[in-house]
């Protein structure tokens, strides 16, 4: 049976591997223009440039131009995520390092908090399998689409509509050059999605761990406040322990607020790019499904939908955990504290009423209500595009 720190290390190693594969260097000692980063930047420029050129080539056919731009929104979103992560390398390292030292290293098997820590370490580990399986599952469907078309229709086709200038993909050599480049795009893009989205899940799940540890300590403190030795002020040891635990709870709440504020700042522009690019990407692939028989659009649509939904599920988890913490503070027996601690409790409760969590560029929170509004907007955009094409 794995321990909490082993679950954490296995999950963190996935992030470091993804970062190393795409040259992000978030946890590497070397910083600047490394070989991996230059390779990733080159692929980003080539991906966007080749899609723009292919769209220009098929500009006289609306359906072929749509097919050529089925992944352009995903590429733009990944580019924004990539540069955002590189720019905020130090905050990412700080948050991940704090989680390890303040939770998984501090609370070992002998501590009372260990079951809570191990539960979240296991959840984080399982979430990694689910997210990696989902992204590579859609990637596998896209890969087998050309094989399906070849064996059923006898027709050769690319993985997706992105051509190389002056390379004829209808001949054998040109076909394998184009497909090899497309596979490189796919692998790099999937690793980038895993890095950013799993890192978002990493911070979300560990933020929930921070909250539940504080709630655990509030429950312990509530039991101490109910002891006769504290109520009658006859036990100096119990009074000192209460004071120490109360100061610890204040510190932990301050740490939670700072953690979520930093996390929100990191993902603010990423969420905006994710929403904007996913809406247009989903709309394009829905049009392709309705108007053509290009089966790869189903896999691309599934990947885009999952990528968009993951962020809102994680945002809703944060919102739910913040609400749970507020409920725990409201139910806390504050009337058993002395006058000075009661004043501190009022300030604590006042701060807890201010919302914390992810937002879309500070405009709106990332939750289910916002997700519903975006789905309505997506349907309206899709209907408008269908009427235009008809």
Describe this structure in words.
It is found in: Cell membrane. One of its GO terms (cellular component) is plasma membrane. InterPro entries: 7tm6_olfct_rcpt. By secondary structure, the protein is mostly helical. It has one domain. Helices cover 79% and strands 0% of the residues. It is built from twelve helices and no strands. The protein is elongated, with a radius of gyration of 25 Å. The chain starts with a helix and ends with a helix. The mean pLDDT is 83.
- The gyration radius over C-alpha positions equals 25 Å
Q: Give the mean pLDDT.
A: 83
Count of helical stretches: 12
Q: In terms of per-residue confidence, which ranges show pLDDT below 50 for 5 or more consecutive residues?
A: none
Helical fraction equals over 70%
Cα-to-Cα separation, first versus last residue: 60 Å
Which range does the strand content fall in?
A: under 5%
Transmembrane segments: 126-151, 183-205, 269-289, 295-318
Keywords: Cell membrane, Membrane, Olfaction, Receptor, Sensory transduction, Transducer, Transmembrane, Transmembrane helix
GO cellular component, one term: plasma membrane
Pfam families: 7tm_6 (PF02949)
């Amino acid at each position: 049976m794995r321990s909490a720190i082993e679950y954490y290390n296995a999950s963190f190693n996935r992030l470091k591997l993804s970062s190393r594969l795409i040259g992000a260097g978030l946890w590497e000692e070397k910083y600047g223009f490394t070989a991996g980063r230059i390779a990733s930047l080159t692929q980003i420029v080539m991906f966007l440039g080749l899609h723009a050129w292919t769209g220009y080539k098929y500009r006289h056919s609306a359906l072929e131009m749509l097919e050529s731009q089925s992944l352009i929104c995903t590429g733009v979103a990944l580019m924004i995520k990539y540069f955002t992560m590189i720019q905020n390398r130090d905050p990412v390292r700080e948050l991940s390092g704090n989680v390890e030292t303040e939770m998984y290293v501090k609370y070992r098997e002998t501590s009372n908090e260990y079951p809570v820590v191990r539960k979240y370490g296991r959840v984080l580990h399982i979430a990694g399998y689910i997210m990696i399986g989902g992204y590579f599952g859609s990637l596998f469907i896209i890969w087998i689409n050309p094989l399906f078309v070849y064996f059923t229709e006898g027709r050769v086709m690319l993985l997706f509509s992105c051509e190389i200038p002056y390379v004829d993909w209808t001949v054998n050599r040109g076909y394998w050059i184009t497909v090899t480049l497309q596979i490189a795009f796919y692998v790099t893009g999937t690793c980038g999605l895993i890095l950013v989205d799993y890192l978002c899940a990493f911070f979300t799940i560990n933020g929930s761990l921070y909250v539940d540890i504080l709630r655990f300590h509030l429950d312990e403190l509530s039991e101490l406040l109910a002891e006769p030795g504290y109520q009658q002020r006859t036990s100096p040891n119990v009074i000192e322990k209460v004071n120490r635990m109360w100061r610890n709870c204040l510190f932990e709440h301050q740490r939670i607020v700072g953690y979520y504020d930093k996390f929100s700042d990191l993902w603010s522009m990423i969420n905006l790019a994710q929403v904007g690019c996913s809406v247009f990407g989903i709309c394009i692939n829905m049009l392709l499904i309705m108007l053509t028989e290009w089966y790869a659009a189903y896999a691309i649509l599934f990947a885009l939908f999952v990528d968009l939904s993951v962020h809102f599920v994680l945002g809703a988890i944060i919102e739910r955990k913040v609400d749970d913490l507020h409920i725990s503070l409201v139910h806390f027996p504050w009337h058993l504290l002395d006058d000075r601690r009661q004043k501190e409790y009022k300030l604590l409760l006042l701060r807890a009423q201010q919302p914390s969590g992810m937002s879309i560029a500070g405009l709106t929170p990332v939750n289910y209500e916002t997700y519903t509004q975006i789905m309505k907007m997506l349907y309206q955009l899709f209907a408008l595009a269908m009427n235009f094409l008809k």
